[in-house]
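Handoff note, outgoing to incoming analyst
You'll be picking up this chain. Sequence as last confirmed:
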Amino acid sequence: MVSVLYVKTALQQVIAAAPDQRGRSVAAAVACWLAVTPGAALAAVRLGGWERGPLVHLVAYTPYAAGLSVLPLLGALGLRRWKAAAVAALSLAALTSVVLPRALPGVAADVGGPRLRVLTANIKHGEADPAALVELVREHKIDVLAVQELNAGFIAAFDAAGIGAELPHRIVDDPAIYVNGGLYSRVPLTDPGIHQHESGFTQAYATVTLPGGAPLVIESVHSCAPLSLADVPCWFAGLRGQRAATSDGPVRLLMGDFNATLDHGPMRALLATGYEDAAANMGHGLAGTWRPIDHGFSLPPIAIDHILIDPRLAIREYAVWPLPGSDHSAVFAEVSLPPV
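Most recent structure output, in case you need it:
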């Protein structure tokens, strides 16, 4: 209510500054359209998949824009600017329609096979607390852990903290570069490999087989971040280079730092191949997984870490847990595998 009154008061102050009635009318129209246009533009970009350049960053905050888009609508209604109110209402409806479904409570499903507990964690160039991550693995009985931004120092500290006792099997790419990834597992990892992007980012993958369950290919995803305008082509290429879901090939699960939200066009295109997002599936799609902690500014968290399952899998549980030392949270899911 305070925010609504603030917007309405601000618009009224702009109008009151006009010298006469006609001037006030023009000022009211201008003020309303200035308030309404940003939300309408973002809705168009989001629906059209037109994010380019700096718009990539703005689209990441679509859920927040959806919540705030009610304010221009109320302001326009209060000032009886019906055309502006109509545009604001359409913008609100458009943004809400794409954001709300991921927050609706889901139902835990089961496809009849064994269950696998998986966790993904971006450890921020090895700065995360290795003991805290081992404790998460131990406390929540994790079967497979995907890690991004590994380095030699963290690998050694992770071993010293006891990860080998919990997850004795592993595949880790060259620890000399932070863009690598790794998998740690309670059960043997077979057919391991490294999926390398044109950008140089690498993703470890392997097959996990549980008794009574179909073999599952798991990949630790780390896609290029759009930190600057120059990085945006790399960002697009990284997301487009992810392996598509199939209905008749290997059963597949992707988890890691996608550096993209469910509102980004390339991410939606990947989901359109058949994947389901575990968070959205369980009604937790608005839970943020990343926030800047050392950039000299504060922004609300956004969901860029994901667990994607192909159509033959189902989600039983989902959670996001803090990871001390990292700007990412750890993301957990319990997955139901198809039987053999």
